[in-house]
Every structure is written in C-alpha cells, then in structure tokens.
C-alpha cells in the first residue's frame, strides 16, 4: 500500500504546503480562537506558560514578570503568520517555524480542554463519543505537526549544523 504524500515538503526556497481546501477551512478559525483564549487568560492556555519554579511561587512570579509578555508576543506573532499564510502553497523557513509553534500551541490547549492522556489512541475514536470532532481535530493537528517537524528536520545536518 502506498503512503499518502506528506502535506509538507522542504524545497530549495523553503517549504511546500499541500493542504486540501477542507483542511485549510478546518484550520482557518483556530488562530482567532486561540488568540481569544490567550487574551482572556483562559485556564486551558496555562500549558503555554508553564511555571519555571513550581515549588517557589515568589521566584515563579518573578520569572513570569520577566518572560510572560515576550512569550505572549511570540505566540500572537505566530498566530498572525499562520492566519496570513493559511492559503499559501509555499512558505519560508521562518513562516514554517511560526506554523510549527502555532500547531503545537493549538494541540496543547485543545488537549488540555479535552483532558487528553498519553494512553489515548486515535484508533479508538468513535463518531458517537462526546467531543469526537474535537478529538479528531486534535489528532489531525498532531499528524500535521509531525509532518512539519519531519520537513524541517530534512534541512538539518546530523552533526547539528544546518545545510
């Protein structure tokens, strides 16, 4: 059986993104939804700002005061890049890195909301279970993220120096 082509392929100039119109439509509203959660400081987005010092609230508060604004700006920038390039077929290395960050953040937030655990298996997903469509989206985002990582890794020298 032939494996389907990867939706992301490294090219000489960056990356080719081959998503169907249905996939692009499924992704279209996600950046705005994540932006809203970030701006509301929704608890499901807490995984995007993990504590540096779990056992020391004072040190952790200092850490958050130092980095939270930068982390937020980075996440919002990545959301904007994804929104601006959602219909693109070709992306630069920088744009693909923003896509990777956004896909990861979307998965983390969705996984938190759905209480996903490591022992959950996409093969066990049933259409009649509650939140089946959201779990399917979660698994799709993971699949797409995996392909982005693989495509980005193709440009890395095994010695750790980029081509």
Jot down its keywords.
single chain; 163 residues; 3-stranded antiparallel beta sheet; 3 strands
Detailed description of the structure:
It is a single chain. By secondary structure, the chain is mostly helical. It has one domain. Helix content is 56%, strand content 6%. It has five helices and three strands. A three-stranded antiparallel beta sheet has the order 1-2-3. The two termini are 33 Å apart.
What would you say about this model in short?
It contains 5 helices and 3 strands. By secondary structure, it is mainly alpha-helical. It is globular, with a radius of gyration of 17 Å.
Chain-wise SSE layout:
Blueprint: E1 8-11, E2 14-17, H1 21-28, H2 30-40, H3 57-85, E3 90-91, H4 93-114, H5 132-153
Antiparallel strand pairs: 1-2, 2-3
Helix pairs in contact: 2-3, 3-4, 4-5
Shape: globular
Q: What's the assembly state of these chains?
A: single chain
What class would the helix/strand composition place it in?
mainly alpha
Count of structural domains? 1
Kindly state the percentage of residues in helix. Answer: 55-70%
